[in-house]
Design goal:
The chain has two helices and three strands. The protein is an alpha+beta fold. The longest helix has 9 residues.
């Protein structure tokens, strides 16, 4: 079983609605766990998460 390593986390807040944007961007917002405007979620700082954030950076606010 893999060990859970405590690392850096990133806070992501949805500040703009994905309505009117392409379906892949809507899916990325949903995959990040964001459903409502001004909702904030925390994710581990991984390259996969960073890539997702870069695809929808115009819709979100990121805090380290």
């Amino acid at each position: 079983m893999a060990k859970k390593v405590e690392g850096k986390t990133i806070k992501v807040t949805l500040v703009r609605s994905p309505i009117g944007f392409p379906v892949p961007q809507k899916a990325t917002v949903k995959a990040l766990g964001l459903r409502h405007l001004n909702q904030t979620v925390e994710h581990n700082d991984t390259p996969a998460i960073r890539g997702m954030l870069m695809k929808v950076i115009h819709l979100i606010r990121v805090e380290e």
